[in-house]
Write a sequence for this structure.
């Protein structure tokens, strides 16, 4: 049994210690916005925040966490879709299939929290999530729009 602080709520999770955090979030907590992609922390579809840091949840066991750590999923970023990134995603029609987008938004939110005015190079260096549809230019534009659009290129 694990006690996890997910989206500001402490949840008791009945799972083996080696169960990936992703499956505890999806199956036990019932929050299905976080997606399974590769299972080896490469694609980023499973990205959540742990104490504000973008973390790929598919390869982290629940035993690595306790209720003192704040885990935030896409559902906890903004329950009503009003986060500036979510609004920019919609305004710029970023997703095609949309599968990777919750992880992409979570990675982008962590970037903006650490660097409110990222350059193009900052975005390319930090957003390493994989999008099979190739919407990277729109992702970059949405991040810049959410940041206020005034950052330098490069």
């Amino acid at each position: 049994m694990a006690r996890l602080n997910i989206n500001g709520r402490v949840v008791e999770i009945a799972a083996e210690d080696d169960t990936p955090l992703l499956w505890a979030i999806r199956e036990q907590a019932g929050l299905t916005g976080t997606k399974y992609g590769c299972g080896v922390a490469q694609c980023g579809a499973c990205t959540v925040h742990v104490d504000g840091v973008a973390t790929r949840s598919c390869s982290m066991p629940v035993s690595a966490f306790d209720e003192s750590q704040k885990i935030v999923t896409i559902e906890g970023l903004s329950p009503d879709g009003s986060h500036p990134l979510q609004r920019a995603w919609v305004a710029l029609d970023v997703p095609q299939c949309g599968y990777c987008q919750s992880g992409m938004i979570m990675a982008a939110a962590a970037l903006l929290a650490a660097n409110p005015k990222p350059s193009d190079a900052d975005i390319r260096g930090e957003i390493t999530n994989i999008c099979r549809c190739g919407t990277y230019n729109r992702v970059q534009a949405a991040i810049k729009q959410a940041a206020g659009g005034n950052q330098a290129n490069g």
The chain has a mean pLDDT of 94. The chain has six helices and five strands. The chain has two domains: 2-77, 84-146.
